[in-house]
Amino acid sequence: MEGYIKLYRKLLDNPVFQNEKLLKIFIWCLLKASHSEHEQLIGLQTITLQPGQFIFGRLKAAEELHMKESTIYKYIKWLEKNEICNIKSNNKFSLVTIDNWGLYQLAETKGNSKSNNNVTTKEQQRNTNKNVKNDKNGKNIYIGLSENMKNAINDFIEMRKKIRKPMTERAIQIMLKKLDGLAKDETTKIAILEQSTERGWLSVYPLKEDKPAQKLPANTTNFKQREYSPEFYKKITGG
After folding, report:
1. Exposure pattern of 167-185 as b/e (b: 16+ CB <10 Å)?
2. CATH, residue 67
3. What is the pLDDT of residue 150?
4. How confident is the model at residue 168 (pLDDT cuts 50, 70, 90)?
5. Are the C-beta atoms of 108 and 120 separated by less than 8 Å?
6. Which residues have CB under 8 Å from 134's CB, separation 6+?
7. What percent of the chain has pLDDT over 70?
8. pLDDT of residue 29
9. Which residue segment(s) compose the domain that 88 sits in?
């Protein structure tokens, strides 16, 4: 395998850097990940790997890393739990996807040509978690939306991912259709999305307005006026 990977200095501040075995496995994952789309034959099954993906096997990993299989599996699951990678397994193999591969490994440098920039941008948009793929009609959901609206949609999608309830493309389409039914203007839609994001809701709902505290009329109190008997009045007035 040829080529190189990028390591960003902020890795120094990441918990991964504090554990030498975890750091070794993390860098190994970056080195194993595909840098371009290609097909790989697993048994008699052809798998199409996207940038940032690789086929994982504990036995092969143990040979290359010189570690116990149980140790590698434990650290790989830690990376998944902390949303650094995603693992999909079947009875034959596991497919590992490096989260944000397109965001970091495919980030452009100033020296690249315009044509390379166009290709890389497309790959980055296809593989970055925050990007949403085209719908069945081929129209991107971001077309015609402001940056604030795009950010609100992305924040909601990221929230769903963090609470372990990621959205499928179909789920995003249904959510946006429901949002159109709740509000016509973009400002209200943003407020609805922010409401669901802040409260960790799985869908969008009408805005909830906090009811103001009910004020008492002037010259009134919370105390019920006491009633006195005629005999009491006679006693205090001397009548």
Report:
1. beeeebeebbeebeeebee
2. 1.10.10.10
3. 87
4. confident
5. yes
6. 140
7. 70
8. 94
9. 9-104
